[in-house]
Design a protein that fits this description.
This protein has 403 residues and is α/β, with parallel strands linked by helices. It contains 15 helices and 12 strands.
């Protein structure tokens, strides 16, 4: 039985640190935090992975995110070439709001063409994307000055709002931009364009938790009650830490991708952290989380570290069957069934008869005592040769040769 009424750190599925729930921290947390999943845009465009997916595959991914309970899905770019694909998502019957990002190059297009594409596609909103640091303005929009950036971005946002679109104002490379200009830009965007939300974007992943927390507090003074969103990159392996630091200081939406592809905080990590470590209810179907992550990864055909926390194949893995009988709450920070996963007994020289029988059961097989001894001997031999735990298919090969 859950004990969350007076001890939110204690639950039937976990028993975490009470220090996470200090009054000082809880007072700064927003009551509602939105997940903006950008797997289909920022994730699939990861330049280090070279992922290719068809429109049909992307729609299947979007439906899985939708069934999981994600209520904002970013599906691509508002380019003329993408219009027909964007329309497909508008017709997919998703409960989630659908967004697309305006490309930086759209600042050079005629009038507000990028916004018109979003309207033709029947999308819910746009991520209005443009550089704000002088470094990236000079790189992507050579010849433009900062006043032109302000005028174009605010004008585009105003037009999008007049047409009824949700506008996430997305001035990227925020973490390297001049604060005086950020203040002027955001006050204009709020006062003249009436944007819905504004993002802090750590484009190169160069922010620290302290820095992101400071930026959120600073921007809250400039945008009044306009929600602040976080788009953190993971170049220093700080995307999750930076995202949580921003949330702790009043941010109310976070951009994520499944498995963290695209150097983003992983959707599964953020929603699990928020629920278990912060007590934030997101209306997520957590029991389908593991299956959702696995299926989307299979569709996208990207590789994942099998030992990564939460969604890795061996995230709840152990190589000693002695732990099968331990108190389950002491083996992992939360029970794997909360996310639809399970414990995985990794096969090595430390695996005893009980562990072998447990793994045989997973294969739908049984073995005599003599066969278990032979399997154990063969496992020890292979473990010694390979110097690592045996993979599932290697264990199965041993079993098939004996049972």
């Amino acid at each position: 039985m859950s004990n969350e009424a007076n001890k939110p750190w204690v639950h039937a599925m976990w028993d975490v640190s009470p220090y996470n729930f200090s009054a000082g921290l809880q007072n700064h947390l927003k009551k509602q935090i939105e997940i903006h999943d950008t797997t289909l845009r920022d994730g699939l465009s990861d330049p280090s992975r070279g992922i290719f997916t068809s429109t049909q595959q992307k729609v299947e991914m979007a439906r899985m995110l939708d069934d999981l309970g994600i209520r904002r899905i970013e599906i691509g770019l508002t380019t003329p070439e993408s219009l027909e694909e964007l329309k497909t998502f508008g017709q997919a019957g998703l409960k989630a709001k659908t967004f697309a990002m305006t490309p930086t190059s759209s600042f050079k297009w005629k009038d507000w063409e990028a916004i018109d594409i979003a309207l033709k596609a029947g999308l819910s909103g746009v991520v209005l994307n443009f550089p704000i640091s002088k470094q990236l303005v000079n790189h992507f929009l050579p010849g433009w000055n900062m006043e032109q950036i302000l005028a174009k971005s605010v004008g585009m946002a105003r037009y999008a709002k007049e047409k009824g679109l949700f506008v996430n104002f997305f001035p990227y490379d925020t973490t390297r931009a001049e604060p005086d200009f950020i203040e002027r830009l955001l006050k204009s965007a709020v006062g003249e364009a009436h944007i819905d939300t504004v993002s802090i974007i750590d484009t190169l992943g160069v922010g620290s938790p302290h820095g992101i927390a400071s930026m959120v507090r600073m921007m809250r003074q400039w945008v009044a009650d306009i929600p602040i969103e976080l788009h953190m990159h993971n170049d220093f392996n700080l995307a999750i830490a930076n995202t949580l630091a921003g949330i702790e200081n009043g941010a109310s939406a976070v951009h994520t991708t499944i498995n963290g592809i695209g150097k983003m905080p992983a959707t599964e990590d953020i929603i699990t952290c928020l629920r278990i470590l912060y007590g934030v209810e997101l209306c997520i179907n957590y029991g389908d989380l593991s299956n959702c992550c696995n299926r989307i990864r299979e569709i996208g055909r990207w590789e994942q570290d099998p030992y990564r926390p939460i969604s890795g194949k061996y995230a709840f893995g152990y190589d000693s069957d002695e732990r099968l009988n331990e108190n389950r709450s002491q083996k992992a920070p939360f029970l794997p069934e909360f996310i639809g996963s399970q414990y995985h007994l990794i096969v090595s020289g430390r695996t005893g008869p009980e562990g072998i029988r447990w793994n045989l059961k997973q294969l739908g097989k049984e073995a005599s005592e003599e066969q278990v001894k032979r399997i154990s001997t063969k496992i020890a031999e292979e473990w010694g040769k390979k110097g690592r735990a045996l993979r599932d298919e290697e264990f199965k090969s041993i079993v098939d040769g004996i049972v």
